[in-house]
Amino acid sequence: MNVYDYEMPDAERLVLLALRAAFPGVRCAVYLPTDWQKTLRQDGRLLIARRVGGNERVPGHVDSGMFNVQCYALTRRSASEMARQARAALRRSARDQFAGEDGHIQNFREVTGPFMTTDPLTEAQPDFYRFTANYMIDTRPRR
Known about the structure:
The protein is α+β, with helices and mostly antiparallel strands. The protein contains four helices and five strands, in the order H-E-H-E-E-H-E-H-E.
């Protein structure tokens, strides 16, 4: 089989699976849910991870995706801790070659480490905190 025949895995799905394994009971999603305030008040934490760019670095072998990871919590300390735990979980997933049904997480590189961020949506909620980070995460297909 020609390497160009291999379909690359759904990197976003792999990253979410790895984060859900690391954060059981925490809602992990690609987009901020419409009921995010209710979720945050009930569960105390919410994690959003979405692919925002990248490219197929080695055709048929390695897809390199830029991921934005946002951690929401009821205290600044909890949001910061969750962001650092998410970073560690993604780093471990690359080290351990975390596998999903169609591929593996292969490599992790930090682009922007966790930092507290706000916008009009979260500024209107003085008891909600958000930390954001950006990572390059390489995935490869199962063979």
